[in-house]
Write a structure and sequence with these properties.
This protein is of the alpha/beta class. It contains 15 helices and 15 strands. InterPro entries: GH, Glyco_hydro_17, Glyco_hydro_17_plant, TAT_signal, X8.
Length: 484
């Protein structure tokens, strides 16, 4: 279809352009949070649990099995991942009786009132506890055997978070490969274990580190899920519009080199962006943290978390972290990854459920509210549902290039037609016709629709074809208004 005709198509052609199926959101993943406690000024666990419920956070990952925390989480409906620390790996690997006792005391004693759904055996073992690397998989096997003995192995999965330092090669993504010392000795048996037990691979991925160390070569928009020109992988021809996708696909490529493990899901067990850093930590700021975590959360919750290599994957994500932790060692950024200050005020704004409403105990399903498309294929009402937050400050609605031109075209047709957006400026010869691309035209139309609807939650999604940004998009010489 000629580019000149794109903005001229209206809603009357929508039914012929795409089947309704493509306009419905994919099955969404969930956005959880890492609850670290390396601080001396945090609220007590009961208050933290109330905060989780108020924010609609339904999944939390811990770094230990503190009884006070696990008891506070009981009967909340919040799903929990607990951790067996690196310091206990050797004992769990060498003695099945130790693993059984650990599971009895730290899992079975609280389940099912506390909905423990996973055990992270160790954390970034290859990077922080290299001396016990060889004991990782044996420890996982013994912990799983203990769960099986207690009839908990179906409900509680066993995994271990790996850092991207486990990769020998990560760029381009198609060249992803595990380090030689890990590939066959550790990663292959670990993947075999995950496949056999129906578990998932946990990956800690931080685009911030890659960007901060290579800001001259990596676009900030590419790191923050904002509109960008994309980066093409010369190895497989796939085009990437986000650095996190590229990192995850490097892991998928590394996994595929060891065998067919397509049935093993990936969970992003840690990812985040610091709101403050040292002068050398380029990009650390509250605005960038809000953009990274907010744009990522919207992608996951709207069912668009798949990567170019695995476009249909529904990926769960745990943001790092719930609080700023004042006793963490290292650079300033290490103490400033929190979404909340210890006084429970937000460091910046990020939603854990689409639509901003509902909580862990409130019923509504994650990823289904306020997505922007009703059953008839049209967008939700421009009036925000009761209790739903309307975006304040400067905000724009832009196209998500990753969904492809078919879905963008369908959403553009609706916005310029039945949706009531003013699309005269993107007609041939008009002020915003250039750049003459689908993404630019769709962004203009989506933004006009979004601003006219009062920027209410649910009016910038179009089944994942659009998302909100908080910095003015660059569309050639055309400025997208932040008001109507």
């Amino acid at each position: 279809m000629a580019l000149q005709r794109r903005a001229l198509l209206v809603a009357g052609m929508l039914a012929a352009a795409l089947p309704l199926l493509l306009l419905r959101p994919a099955e969404a993943g969930t956005v959880g949070v890492n609850y670290g406690r390396v601080a001396n000024n945090l609220p007590n666990p009961a208050a933290v649990v109330q905060l989780l419920k108020q924010q609609g956070i339904t999944q939390v990952k811990l770094y230990d099995t503190d009884p006070t925390v696990l008891r506070a989480l009981a009967n909340t409906g919040i799903k929990v991942v607990v951790a067996l620390p690196n310091e206990q790996l050797a004992a769990a690997a060498s003695r099945a009786s130790y693993a059984l006792l650990w599971v009895r005391r730290n899992v079975a004693a609280y389940y099912p009132a506390t909905q423990i759904q996973g055990i992270a055996v160790g954390n970034e073992v290859f990077a922080t506890a290299k001396n016990v690397t060889a004991q990782l998989v044996p420890a996982m096997v013994n912990v799983h055997a203990a769960l099986a003995r207690l009839n908990l192995d179906k409900a509680v999965k066993v995994s271990s978070p790996i850092a991207l330092t486990a990769l020998a090669t990560s760029y381009p993504s198609s060249a992803g490969a595990f380090r030689e010392d890990l590939a066959q000795p550790v990663m292959k048996p670990l993947l075999d274990f995950l496949a056999q037990t129906g578990s998932y691979l946990m990956v800690n991925a931080y685009p911030f580190f890659a960007y901060s160390g290579n800001a001259g070569d990596i676009s900030l928009d590419y790191a923050l899920f904002r509109p960008n020109d994309g980066v093409q992988d010369p190895g497989n021809g796939l085009k990437y519009y986000s650095l996190l996708d590229a990192q995850l696909d490097a892991v998928f490529a590394a996994v595929s080199r060891l065998g067919n493990y397509n049935g093993v899901r990936v969970v992003v067990s840690e990812t985040g962006w610091p709101s403050k850093g040292d002068a050398s930590e380029v990009g650390a700021s509250a605005a960038n943290a809000a953009a990274y975590n907010g744009n990522l959360a919207r992608r996951v919750l709207s069912g668009n978390a798949g990567t170019p290599r695995r476009p249909d994957a529904d990926i769960d994500v745990y943001l790092f972290a719930l609080f700023n932790e004042n006793q963490k060692p290292g650079p300033t950024s290490e103490r400033n990854y929190g979404v909340f200050y210890p006084n429970q005020q937000k460091v910046y704004d990020v939603e854990f459920v689409l639509g901003g409403g509902g909580g862990a105990a409130g019923g509504g399903s994650q990823g289904s509210g306020g997505l922007g498309w009703q059953e008839n294929g049209g967008p939700a009402s421009g009036n925000p549902p009761s209790g739903v937050k309307v975006t304040t400050g400067e905000a724009w609605c832009v196209a998500n290039a990753m969904v492809g031109e078919q879905r963008l075209q369908a959403a553009l047709n609706y916005a310029c037609g039945e949706g009531g957006a003013d699309c005269k400026a993107i007609q041939p010869g008009a002020a915003c016709f250039e750049p003459n691309t689908m993404v630019a035209h769709a962004s203009y139309a989506f933004n006009d629709y979004y601003q006219r609807k009062g920027r209410s939650i649910g009016t910038c999604d179009f089944a994942g074809a659009a998302h909100v940004v908080n910095q003015a998009p660059k569309m050639g010489k055309c400025d997208l208004p932040s008001t109507v």
